[in-house]
Input
Amino acid sequence: MIPLAFLIGIALPTVCGWLLLRLLEGKTPVLLRMERWALGFLAGLMLTMSATFLGAVAGLPLSLPLFLGVQIVLVLALIAGCKLSFGIWFPSAPPSSLPPSGRVPRWAAVLLMLLGVWTAAKICVGGVLLVSTPPRFDDTVKNWNLRGKIFFTTHALDTSVAPEEQDILGGLRSYPPGVSLAKTWLSLLAGQWNEGLANSIHIVWFFTVLLLLYSLLRRCVTTPWALFGVYLLTSLPLFMIHGVSAYADVFLSAHVLAAVGLLFLAVREEDAARRRTFLRLDALMLALLPLTKNEGLVLYLPILLMLLMGCLFFLQRRQRLSTRELCLNILGFAGTIAVLALPWLAYKWLNGFTFGNAKALTGLAVSWNPLALQAIAVMLFFEGSWLLMVPLLALLLLFGRRIAFTQPLLVLTFFLCGAFLVQILLFTVTALANEALYQTGFGRGLIHLMPVAVLLLTILAHWLLSPEKE
Amino acid sequence: MLRKAILLTGALFLLLPASAWAMQSTVWDFTRKQVPGDWLVTGWSSVTPTDQGLHIQPDTDGNMVRQIDLPYPVDTIRIIVTSRTNAESTFLWHRRNSPEGELIQLPIGIGTGDESVITEDLRRYPEWDPRAEGIGIGLPKGADVTIIRIELISWSPAEKLAAAWKSFWTFDSFNATTINFLWGPILNFSPLNVGTFAYQPPRGWSANRLFYALLIVAGAVAMARWIMQRRTGRRAGSRALRLFLSCTLGLWIFYDVRMGAEFLRNATGDIRNYVFAAPGSKVLGGYGNFYDAIQQSLPLLRTQDTYVAILPERASLLGRMQYLTYPSLPAQTENYLKERVWFVYRRPDILVQDGSLQSRDGTVLAKGGSIVKRFDESSFIFMIP
Output
C-alpha cells in the first residue's frame, strides 16, 4: 500500500503540473520532455497543495476527499483547457536545437562512468537511510514532519487545540504549509502516518533538481559536460546530506533553479514566440516561490523581480521586446503572482503571522557583527561542506568575466551574487548573526544557491576550455 | 625519465637524517628518590622525593619550575602522576625573551587514582614556545600528588606527516549539526591525537589549507608554462588553463572521495545499527538507543493523552519525543501528579524503590507503580496501574 500511495501521490500532482505547463506553453512548446516532467512535479505539487490549503481555509476538513477532489478537478480542468486551446491533444514538442555531443574521449567516458557509479552509490545508500530511519534533524521533527503529522491526525489547519491545550507548533504557522501538506497527502493515501513515506518525497525533490540542472546544462553544453555538472552538484557534501534528509532546502533550491533557469532561457532565446513562452513559464515558477519557504518570499522573490525587470528592459532596449509586450509581461507576472501568492500572504497577514524566516522581519535590528563575517569566511573556505566550490567559482568568474558579466549569463551571475550578498548582509548586520556564529542558518541558505552556482560554474568551465573561445 | 625521478626521490629520502624518522624525547624520572635537574619550588613546604616519585602536598598554592635547554623543539608533554585528590593543576612555561618570572599557565586536570597519564599536544596553543626556556607544574592548596615522570617529546617530520594523513582519513560522525555544516578533513600533526572530532572545533588544520597550497602550486606551474609558451605556441593560455583546471578536478575528486567515504561510512553504519538491528539493540548515530526506546514505548505511551518524560538536559530530545509520540504528548510540569506513564531516559539520578519513582535525593515523584519496560540501566518506563 505504501509504495502505491507514493506512486499515486507523486503522479497525480505531477500530471496536474505537466498539463498546466503544457497549457502555458500553448502552440510554442519549449520544454524538453524531462524538463516538463521535473517542472510539472514542482509546480503541480505546490499548486495542488496550495489549492487544498485554500479549501481547508474555507472550512473543508483536511482529509483525503479534499486532496483528491482538488487534484481531480484540476486535472480535468487542465485537460479541458488544453483541448480548448490546442483543438487537438497535446502536440509533440518540436525538435530542440541542443548542442551536438560529438565524440567523447575514452578517458572522459571512463571517468564519467566511475563518477556516476560513485554518485549512484551515495544516493542509493542515502535514499535507504532517508526512508528507513526515523527523522533525527531538528527542523524535520519540529516543523516539516510535525506539521504534516498534525494535519494528518487532526484534519485541520488550526492546530492550536492539541491535547492538553498544548501549542507545540508555536510560531511555525507562519511557514508555508506546502511541504507538510505534501506529507499529509501521501499519508492520507496510505491510510497511516509512515515515516518512510513522509520522508520519501524529499528524494523526489532531490532528483528533480538534478534533472532540472541536467536539462538546463544540456541546452548550453554537451551531454558529458551536463552530466559532469550534475556530478559536481551531488559531490557537494552538504547538498548530498540535504538531498537525502527530510529538510526543505533542496526543495527550495529546485524552485529557485526553475525560476532563475527559465528567466535565463528566456533572455538567451532568439525566437520571440519561444521567449514569450519561457517568460510565461517563469511567471508561474516565480509566483510559486512565496509558497515554498519563507526565504522564497522575503529573499529570492524580491531579487528575482529586480532581475526580471532588468531583463525585460534589456530585451526591450535590444528591440527583442516591444513596449506593448513589455507592459503585457509585467502585467502577466504581477497577475500570476497575485493569483497564486496573494491568498497565502493575505492568510498570513489576517492571522497576524510574522513575515521573515527564523526571525520576523520587523524584529531585525541592525548591528554589525564582525565575528559573523569571520565565521562565514571559515564556512566558505575552510570547511568540508562545499569542497572547493567557492574559490573555484570565484576564479572562473574572474577568468570567464567576458561572458559571465554579459547577457545571457549575467542573469545567473547577477542572481547568484545578489542573493549571496544579501545573505551575507543578513547574517552579519542583523540578529541572524548568531546563526552564522553557531553555523546553523547560513550553510542552509547556500543550499538554495548551489544548483544555480553549479550551472554557472559548469557553463564557464566549458566555455573556458572550448577551442572556439580563442 | 619518471623512473629516474622516483629513484632520485627515494635516494634523497634515504639520505635524510635519522631525526626525520624517529621521535626525540627527554624523560625526567622522579622514582627511586631522584630529582632530575634543579627545580625552583615556590610556596610549598612539603615536597618529598620517594621511591614512587616526587610527593607534593601543598599547604598553599605554589609551583615548581626548572630551566631547560633542549636541542629540539618540544611538541608534546606527558606527565605521569598518582593523586589522592582531584586537583586543578597547571602546566607552566617561560617563553624565550619574555620578562623574567613571567609564566604562561595551561590548566590540566589531575584525577584521583593510581597512575594516570596526562598528555598535552602543546602545538595547538598559540602561546606555546617549542623552545621555552623554563617549564614547571603548579598545584593548588590541598592537592596530594606524586609526580612519577615527565616526558618532553618532539615528533619527527615523518611521524607528523603520518599523523596528518591518519587524521585526514578520520571521519566525523552524524550528529545534530551535520545538517548545518561539515567540518571536513582535518590535518592534525600530533601522533597522540586520537579523537580529532571529539573536540569542537576539531583540533588541527582544515585540510583545505593543503588543497589551496596545491592549487597555488598548480596555478604557478600553469602560469610559468603560459609565460614560456605564449610567444611560440598558439593557445598557450588555453593549455595553461586546462592544466590548472585538470589539477583542480583531481583535487575535487580526491576531496569528494574523502567526504563521500565519510558519508557512506556513517550512513551504512546507521542502516546496519538501526535498520537491521533487532528491537532493543537499535542505535542511531548521535542518539544512542533513544529512538529504539521510544519505538518500544509507543504502544504504552499512546494509551495516554499525556505522559511524563524525564530526559537528560538536552532540549532537543523533548522535541523528538513530541513528534514521535504525537498525538500523545509529554505533559506540562503542573500536570505531573495525575500522570500514569513516566518515560525515563538516561537519568541515573531517577530510581524506583518500593513502588515509588524518586530522585536520588529522596524526592518522590510518583507512587504505586512499577517498571514495565527497561531499555538500559538508567532508562525505563514506570507505570501506575
